[in-house]
Design brief:
- The protein is built from six helices and 28 strands.
- It is an alpha/beta fold.
- The radius of gyration is 30 Å and the shape is elongated.
């Protein structure tokens, strides 16, 4: 916490994560599990592939039978059968014999290698082999991908396309995952207009109901409701109480500052909420509140659209993943900051940046004006460059810590 009582970002993250508990798991059909977090370890019960198979279309042979084969002096073998994918050969390969084989088919008994079809000539029940092969050549061994008893996926893994493919290959039609956290979203402000509502003087369009709700879904949550409430204390208190009734987390945008029409903190106090912190040493995102209400985490985020997105990414997103049992480590790395940066001491700054790879490594270029109301600055951003509170100058091309945005934006960053 700094001298003004504002909490540093990393301290805030620790306080948030310490206040959470993991949600129970439930069983999902495989095709419904994309993006969910595993609530069990996945152990291979049998090897994969389950048998020695061919990596190529060609002919299964005994390597010793084709030793010395070449174009000028082919080795002639007698064809005695065929092994197709899903239809294994019944014959056992003997001396001087070959069995036609398809990619993925079982290697017949007696064979120890495969000759590619391109290096053969087939003629009237025989095959001319034009090159020698070593034992095991073009053979995919049983268990080469996964051995029986191997833990293939660990509890806490997020299920993407590759993970679903692995589960299917192991025969899992269902999988146990953490339940999706249920989130209620409140957006406050008399000035807010819905997207299709008629314009009026002094009003602005509500973007937080859409951007913050989308961030919650990208973090694996189910958004139960998204409601806009005016700057009225009684209405604000009633809306917060209703939002907390069935939700696992409440997110409130706006009304968190000290103005005469900011009613969220007073409403939370009146409802018996416990405050963990209010005020981040961060720009954008200073008027951020976190606490619990009836045992449920509540985030009070700033109303400015960029501030709301940034604080969600840095605090509420990790909280939602932690509630699903996902690992709590941050995905931060470093990049060279283009152009340098000057700021006063006292608050960390989160700069919206575009990343690029150059000869001297990764670079981060600010996306333009960094005001908390400039929502278009998020369009080209794929990372936040985090400048520490007490840093006052970053030299051009100096390394800074970056927080990738793609994990929190469904790959759309």
């Amino acid at each position: 916490m700094d001298a003004s009582g504002h909490i540093e970002l990393d301290d805030a993250v620790r306080m948030v994560l310490d206040a959470l508990s993991t949600l129970p798991g439930e069983t999902f059909e495989l095709d419904s599990a994309l993006g969910r977090v595993l609530a069990q370890d996945i152990v291979a019960e049998r090897p994969l592939p389950p048998f020695d198979g061919s990596a190529m279309d060609g002919f299964a042979v005994r390597a010793a039978d084709v030793a010395g084969a070449r174009d000028a002096e082919p080795v002639v073998l007698r064809l005695v059968g065929e092994s197709r994918a899903g239809r294994p050969a019944q014959e056992t390969l003997g001396d001087g014999q070959a069995i036609a084989i398809s990619t993925g088919a079982i290697i017949p008994a007696g064979a120890d290698a495969v000759v590619r079809v391109e290096r053969t000539r087939r003629d009237d029940g025989r095959v001319q082999v034009l090159e020698e092969v070593a034992p095991g050549e073009q053979v995919r061994r049983a268990g080469e991908d996964m051995q029986a008893g191997t833990t293939v996926l660990q509890r806490g893994a997020t299920l993407g396309p590759a993970q679903l493919g692995v589960l299917a290959s192991l025969g899992h039609a269902h999988v146990r995952c953490a339940s999706a956290p249920r989130v209620s979203l409140l957006v406050t402000g008399d000035e807010l207009l819905a997207a299709g509502e008629r314009a009026r003087p002094g009003a602005i369009r509500d973007s937080n109901s859409h951007s913050v709700a989308a961030l919650a879904r990208c973090a694996g949550a189910e958004v139960l409701a998204s409601e806009v409430v005016g700057d009225d204390e009684r209405a604000t208190r009633a809306a917060i109480a209703a939002a907390a009734h069935d939700a696992d987390m409440v997110v409130i945008c706006g009304g968190m500052s000290v103005g005469a029409h900011d009613h969220v903190r007073a409403s939370l106090r009146a409802l018996g909420a416990t405050q963990a912190f209010w005020g981040l040493a961060l720009r954008p995102g200073h008027p951020t509140w976190f606490g619990t209400l009836n045992g449920r985490p509540v985030f009070g985020l700033p109303g400015n659209p960029v501030s709301a997105m940034v604080t969600f990414v840095l605090l509420a997103g990790p909280a939602l993943r932690a509630m699903q049992g996902a690992p709590q480590g941050r995905a931060r790395s470093t990049a060279r900051l283009d152009g340098g940066y000057d700021k006063p001491a006292g608050r960390a700054h989160a700069l919206r940046c575009r990343l690029s790879e150059r000869d001297d490594g990764r670079h981060a270029a600010p996306t333009g004006p960094q005001g908390s109301h400039v929502l278009s600055s998020m369009l080209a951003a794929d990372a936040l460059a985090l400048i520490p509170s007490q840093t006052t100058r970053v030299a051009p091309a100096e390394h800074v810590e970056i927080e990738p945005l793609a994990p929190w934006m469904g790959g759309w960053a």
